[in-house]
Amino acid sequence: MKQVTVGLGERSYPIWIGCDHLPKLKEALDAVGFPRRIGIITNPTVGALYGERVTAALCAGNRQVHVIQIPDGEQYKTLETLEQVYDTLIDWRFDRSCGLLALGGGVIGDLTGFAAATFMRGIPFVQVPTTLLAQVDSSVGGKTGVNHPRGKNLIGAFYQPRYVHCDVGMLATLPPREYAAGLAEIVKYGVIRDAGFFSWLEREREALLARSPEALEHAVMISCQIKADVVESDENEQGLRAILNYGHTFGHAVETLAGYGVVLHGEAVSIGMVMAARASALLGFGTAGDADRISRLLQSFNLPVNPPDFAVGDYLEVMRHDKKVRDGSLRLVLNHGIGAADLHQADAPDRLLDQLLA
Fold this sequence. Notes:
Elements: E1 2-6, E2 13-18, H1 25-31, E3 37-42, H2 44-59, E4 64-69, H3 79-91, E5 99-104, H4 106-118, E6 125-129, H5 132-138, E7 143-148, E8 151-158, E9 164-167, H6 176-193, H7 195-203, H8 205-209, H9 213-233, H10 248-258, H11 265-283, H12 288-300, H13 312-319, E10 331-335, E11 341-345, H14 349-357
Parallel strand pairs: 2-9, 3-4, 3-5, 5-6
Antiparallel strand pairs: 1-2, 7-8, 10-11
Helix pairs in contact: 5-6, 5-9, 6-7, 6-9, 6-11, 10-11, 10-13, 11-12
């Protein structure tokens, strides 16, 4: 197994990365002193595939396990669903000596983390991400929350897990579209932080498409290490951490306008990254060649790169609710070539979008 540590002082936590290592979950939770009474939050799809195996691993460690199943889909990442989770925890008489385990993708992880951050003013939780996107992005870094009809992830908190368990063997059951969505976030890390990793992704494209465990372990490890490095420097996104949102400002607008769940998060980020790369070329931070290279790699992973046909005004209205907006000014993460990125104020976003969507 590979291991990455998110170094945050007393709140540091390990990420274990391997293939078919679910039985080691007991050992990992013992190592971080996790509570004996655990509520697993999952959905029917993931629960049917992995619920029994995770429960068996926990019970082998003499833990008491309860399971909450919530509906599958981004459209259920809401305050209403969160309230149902609170109701169940109260019915079970959960207290601060208990913990939660997120078994699923980004929706499950974000909602479980926010439930843990707010129930009894905070109980511990761990992440067992079952999608590629969750393994390389949403399970790491402590961003938790739910969506609002007017914007994605507008309600939430920074709250770090105690431990993250990434088993790439779980990705074998992932539908092709969901798998491709995770590859988008992996490409993002190469664009914003590591040109060598981006080149590796170009070379290892076939291995990744074939879901090679060796290639996946490496890709997940590098992605998690890059994210850990950034989070350690800027946990609450006051500066550097914003680069992790490369492609997300426009991508979140795509998700919101299309309707949650119609365009997958990774698909929307893929579109958003190409838009950001083209904007970077227009503004002189990158080149058209960089944008083409990013677009080609994303397309080779079976991801969309062209934006849906919504009006410029509609995109702007949603983007103005982005969490990077400061004093009413929209800010965009733009790549500087391949391997670096920074946050820039968009002085005339309407004109820029007009050019990009023309």
